[in-house]
Specification:
The chain has ten helices and 20 strands. With 353 residues, it is of the alpha+beta class. It has two domains: 124 residues, Creatinase/prolidase N-terminal domain (Creatine Amidinohydrolase, Chain A, domain 1, 3-Layer(aba) Sandwich), CATH 3.40.350; 223 residues, Creatine Amidinohydrolase. The strands form six sheets. A six-stranded mixed β-sheet has the order 4-3-2-1-5-6, sandwiched between helices. A four-stranded mixed β-sheet has the order 8-9-12-20, covered by helices on one side. Strand 10 and strand 11 form a beta hairpin. The relative contact order is 0.12. The model has no long low-confidence stretch (mean pLDDT 96).
Length: 353
């Protein structure tokens, strides 16, 4: 299956009139070869052949994880000139490769033209194969189950940090290799900050508690946000919760093969604006995810992307009242030919503890 990814990339390189691509982003090297070490690059040629280069620390690991590629153990870039062969143009990941490194590489390989070739692997990664979809489903299942477990122990008096630590333990207990990203757990007025980091504030009766987290399984990530009420909550926040929940449902329903990504954003944003809270919806509606928590496509008003079957995206509208509190509801959703499939399945009802 990984070999098929390199075939797809080779076809894309041929269309771009590139004879080879030097891949230096760690996550892209992993996707193309299976190698998970933190030091490595790979050369993919337009015929689909691949050379993986790493250093001696990873020799055994690379041989085990990437048995079907040409493996080079080297600490410098000298291997590249030896293995490049006759090429008309070599593309480099210019969106990730430092400018001084790119210039040095061009000088070393002269007269071979070294040209910028950003985003080719990321574009292919946006479409998940069956194995990738299964790992994301597993991560989403663990995430949903961990939230259900949280409902059994979240109580006033805990600090945000204590609750976030315990949630991490739940995720790992359920079989995840790690969290997908640093958990956002925001209580009371802190929930009015979209990316609040858990702190020492103690949860209180009357708080909304916003929890944005995910599990990671086999390198693939889930992303889900839910909100819990600790007893009676400010009526304004209850009203906002219903607005956001309705907007999020509209956004999920808009997810479809062939739909412009900006249309999903519009489906959420128009409902929130009509309710008088457009100015408090301060971020885009979602993003792709997979080996990274933020991948193509981006779902916002300026997006030019089109949703395509086998993408996985988030739908996460929110409304935030500074100093009062905020609400965000989020699911990871698979784009399928038959329509959207929400992969995170915890209840969307506001749970009152």
């Amino acid at each position: 299956m990984i070999g098929e990814r390199r075939v797809r990339l080779a076809e894309r390189l041929a269309e771009a009139e590139l004879d080879a691509l030097l891949v230096t982003r760690e996550v892209n090297v992993r996707w193309l070869t299976g190698f998970t070490g933190s030091a490595g690059s790979c050369l993919v040629r337009a015929d689909g052949s691949c050379v993986l280069a790493t250093d001696g620390r990873y020799a055994e690991q690379a041989a085990a994880q990437a048995p079907d590629v040409d493996l080079v153990i080297a600490r410098t870039r000298e291997w590249l000139a030896d293995r490049l062969g006759p090429v008309g143009q070599l593309g480099v990941e210019s969106h990730a490769l430092p400018w001084d490194v790119a210039r040095a590489l061009a000088a070393e390989l002269e007269p071979v033209p070294v040209v910028p070739a950003p985003g080719h692997v990321e574009a292919l990664r946006s479409l998940k194969d069956d194995g990738e979809l299964e790992l994301i489903r597993q991560a989403c299942t663990i995430t949903s189950e961990a939230f259900v477990a949280l409902l059994g122990w979240l109580v006033p008096g805990m600090t945000e940090l204590e609750a976030a630590w315990r949630l991490r333990s739940e995720v790992e207990r359920l079989g995840a290799e790690d969290l997908a990203f640093e958990t956002i757990l925001a209580s009371g007025p802190n929930s009015g900050r979209p990316h609040h980091r858990p702190g020492t504030r103690r949860l209180e009766r009357g708080d909304l508690v916003l929890v944005d987290f995910g599990a990671r399984v086999g390198g693939y990530r889930a992303d889900m946000t839910r909100v819990v009420a600790l007893g009676s909550v400010d009526a304004r926040l209850l009203q906002i919760y219903e607005i956001v929940r309705e907007a999020q449902a509209a956004g999920v329903a808009a997810v479809a093969d062939g739909t412009p990504a900006r249309a999903v954003d519009a489906a959420c944003r128009e409902l929130i604006a009509a309710a008088g809270h457009g100015e408090e919806f301060v971020h885009g509606t979602g993003h792709g995810l997979g080996l990274e928590i933020h991948e193509q496509p981006i779902l916002n008003g300026g997006s030019t992307a089109t949703l395509t079957a086998r993408m996985t995206v988030t739908v996460e509208p929110g409304v935030y009242l500074p100093g009062v509190g905020g609400v965000r509801v989020e699911d990871t959703v698979a784009v399928l030919p038959s329509g959207p499939e929400p992969l995170t399945t915890a209840t969307h009802d506001l749970v009152v503890l």
